[in-house]
Write a structure and sequence with these properties.
Layout: E1 2-7, E2 11-17, E3 23-30, H1 39-47, H2 50-55, E4 61-66, H3 72-85, E5 90-95, H4 96-104, E6 110-115, E7 119-124, E8 129-130, H5 137-140, H6 146-159, H7 164-173, H8 178-186, H9 191-196, H10 199-204, H11 209-226, E9 237-241, H12 243-247, H13 249-258, E10 262-267, H14 271-284
Parallel strand pairs: 1-4, 4-5, 6-9, 9-10
Antiparallel strand pairs: 1-2, 2-3, 6-7, 7-8
């Protein structure tokens, strides 16, 4: 059996295939990001996942693509965990940018971007991935992402800058105090996921000028830092993976057009495309 996993910081999609590429099962877990999770935490969670316990002894290969898996050291955190869980398996770790590139590639070179909980980009020529600008995570980077939008909502609310009608609804949905927010962001685990959770509220008010301006500012900054950095950006399509890019597709297309860039594909969840990619690899082998 072969197991394919695509993980952001919020959730991870898993698909189990037999040796011929037939799908046997699929499930979701929390996302595993080596910036925020230890190998021990990952092992603990997977060991308590019903589907993993059912199939772990039969899996012979795991292909895991994850947010934060951009260095050998960070990849080893995930690999060490998977090696402890899937002990009969060859476990390979890839970056989520690889998953994004494979998902939106249509036979021509392109810029592949991620805008979900976090954000990032790469250039993919069909064989090799290259990055021009590093991802700086949710404190310094993640422009345009759900965590970026959530951070803006929380700070605007606490600063009293949110429009009154939206602020009243925000307060009804999130009756927290400033101290509770500070504790959640600075002292508890996974603050990026916490901030990204406010994206649901943004979606509720997505047609208001206030939310649209926040999204547009985030997308403009993302394009400046993560698209315009490629010398051939106006010669290739710019494609996206992630729920935020899909939810605000019209704004993204407008922001790109103003800069002279062309929108390509938008895929909310790349797992199906990854499965197709690996099935082709099985057929070749």
């Amino acid at each position: 059996m072969i197991l394919i996993a695509e993980s952001g910081s919020t959730k991870c999609d898993w698909v189990l295939l037999d040796g011929s590429g037939n799908e046997l099962n699929r499930w979701k877990t929390i996302g595993f990001n080596p910036y925020f999770h230890t190998a021990e935490e990952i092992v603990s969670h997977l060991s308590n996942t019903k589907e993993v316990e059912t199939y772990r002894s039969q899996v012979r290969a795991v292909y895991f693509y994850g947010a934060g898996c951009n260095t050998s050291k960070l990849k080893m955190i995930i690999k060490n965990a998977l090696d402890q869980v899937f002990i009969h398996s060859q476990n390979e770790i890839g970056h989520d940018l690889e998953a994004a590139a494979f998902s939106v590639y249509e036979g021509a070179p392109l810029i592949a971007c991620i805008i979900g909980t976090g954000s990032n980009s790469c250039f993919f020529d069909g064989e090799k991935i290259s990055e021009n600008t590093p991802a700086l995570a949710f404190i310094l980077g993640d422009e345009g992402s759900a965590s970026y939008i959530g951070k803006r909502l929380v700070t605007d609310f606490l600063y009293g800058k949110m429009p009154q009608d939206i602020a009243c609804d925000f307060k009804d949905n999130y009756p927290f105090t400033k101290d509770e927010v500070i504790d959640r962001v600075y002292h508890q685990c996974h603050p990026n996921v916490y901030l990204a959770s406010f994206g649901i509220f943004a979606g509720k008010h997505s047609k208001t000028p206030y939310i649209r301006n926040i999204v547009k500012e985030g997308f403009d900054t993302f394009i400046e830092n993560h698209v315009a950095c490629y010398s051939n950006a106006n010669q290739v399509k710019v494609s996206f993976v992630g729920s935020v890019a899909q939810a605000y597709q019209g704004i993204m297309e407008e922001c790109l057009r103003i800069r002279g860039f062309k929108l390509g594909e938008i895929v909310a969840q790349p797992i199906d495309s990854l499965v197709t990619y690996h099935i082709k690899q099985l057929q070749v082998s």
